[in-house]
Amino acid sequence: MARPVPAPLLAWLDALRCPQCAAPLAAADGALRCTAGHSFDLARAGYASLLRGGGAISGDDDEMARARERFLATGAYAPLREVLGELAAAIVPALAGPSAVGDMGSGPGYYLAGMLDRFPAARGLGIDTSARSLRFAARAHERAAAALGDVFAPFPLADDSVDLLLDVFAPRNPAEFARVLRPEGALLVARPAAEHLGELRETVPGMVDVDPHKEERLAQALDPHLVEVERREVRTVLDLGAEAARDLVAMTPSARHVDPSTLDDVLDAARGAASGEGLQVTLAVVVSAHRPR
Question: Residue 110, annotated ligand binder?
């Protein structure tokens, strides 16, 4: 029996496009198909695979995806989600009514779900290269659809089809951001500030440093396609237990550089040396809003 297309995906059919030929997609026999005959299956977990032939470049593996889901579920990054919602409400009036929110590099859908909670008339679509992460994103919210896709390829979305795009600690495709955004829509980009997770980077051998030229490179990439209209910063100190700290390291690119055999000992020693019961870790994130030129 064909697997039914989830309602959140059906709600996006007016905007979804075939990643092979850019034709509109329709639901047929438990898959998404275009008029040229390209067909895209639905995973049992509820997401659609909208990758082009070569596949995605990278994505979280199972351990990283589970660590990210566990860590975000603690609410430690709720201050960042709150600022994203406040900024979206301030600069995209359309979100007060029926609207479309896309999250590129959505991971388990934590930030997308926050937007949908805040804007009850909005529909959401999370796109990620990691099938492991999309198992969580497909059930992150009752109005959230999920699709396997590559941020470095043309997005499987129509021109001018999205009111708000999120890019939170994710790769960026500025030309595609500008193409799919509506003229009064906005892109929100969240990236680490210099001191983000500084205590962990000082404690854990192999943790990846923040690129000191990140802001310069970001501006060079975005400016030809989008104009920055507002900027905010999120700065707070997190009090993490050892399990949360392990998951925080394991969900980042640093997980591929840190020796797992030493991680537990290092974090336990750092926690024992810290005041109080938990490890003090700085959350420092820059969030900027951009409109298409």
Answer: no
Q: Does 77 count as an annotated binding residue? A: yes
Positive or negative, the Cα torsion across 92, 94, 98, 99? negative
196 marked ligand binding residue: yes
Please check if 290 is assigned to a binding site: no
Architecture of domain 7-292: 3-Layer(aba) Sandwich (3.40)
pLDDT in tens, 178-210: 999 999 999 999 999 999 999 988 888 888 889
Instruction: Please report the pLDDT score of residue 276 as a whole number.
Output: 53
**Listed residue (235, 50, 80) closest to 149, CA to CA:** 50
- Other beta carbons within 10 angstroms of residue 150's beta carbon come to 24
SS3 at position 146: strand
> Is pLDDT at 2 greater than 70 in this prediction?
no
Please write the tens of the pLDDT for every residue from 258-273: 877 777 777 776 666 5
152: CB partners within 8 A, 6+ apart: 57, 171, 173
Query: pTM for this structure?
Result: 0.94
Which structure tokens are listed for 7? 């309602």
Residues 1-40, buried b or exposed e (16+ Cβ, 10 A)?
eeeebbebbeebeebbbbbbeeeebebeeebbbbeeeeeb
Average pLDDT, the chain: 92
